[in-house]
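=== RUN LOG ===
request id: a7f3
mode: sequence -> structure
chains: 1
length: 203
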Amino acid sequence: MVLRYSEARLPTPHGEFRVVVYRTGRTAGAGATAVGVADEEHVAMVLGDVRGGDVLTRVHSSCFTGEVLGSLRCDCRAQLDAALARIGSEGRGLVVYLVQEGRGIGLGNKVRAYQLQDDGADTVDANLQLGFDADLRSYDLAAGILADLGVASVRLMTNNPQKISGLEGAGVVVAAHEPHWVDTTEHSAGYLAAKKTKLGHLS
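=== RESULT ===
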């Protein structure tokens, strides 16, 4: 279950978006007002009227280390910034921001995976060594958010074929795939190479 909980205008360097917060789980209802009672909160950053088809869209998973702490081990912050900038320049689109840290394994386990990578594993093998699948993310919530916003089809900014198939499996019409590569650094080169060779990320 995903329910729209709150929304407001949000001025950004890329334009004035509308931020919409969705709650999931047992406490998703409007009566859940106490701090911390929501099982999860996800966000849509909306620019313009996104009802209808061919909406420029990024479905993005949270990355505390990259987006908040400025880690250079991944390209998550750069991808998020690039998506918002592109939507801003086009004047219509949205980012669906899902709380799915570390491809679904959580922050603590992602940091454990970092240590395994420092010991020689790549990003995929590290998750496997911890007992997880390479990618545990789900896109059903994103599909629910898109439906609530009236989005009929998306032009999806992604390099991940599993994201395309996951959204399509959840009922989202992906009208077009928009490649979404950003610059590589010396710290992220191995991570991005593993995503291409082991997760099949598209060029």
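=== NOTES ===
The first strand starts at residue 2 and ends at 12.
Helices lie at 64-67, 76-90, 101-104, 107-118, 123-129, 140-148, 161-169, 189-199.
=== END ===
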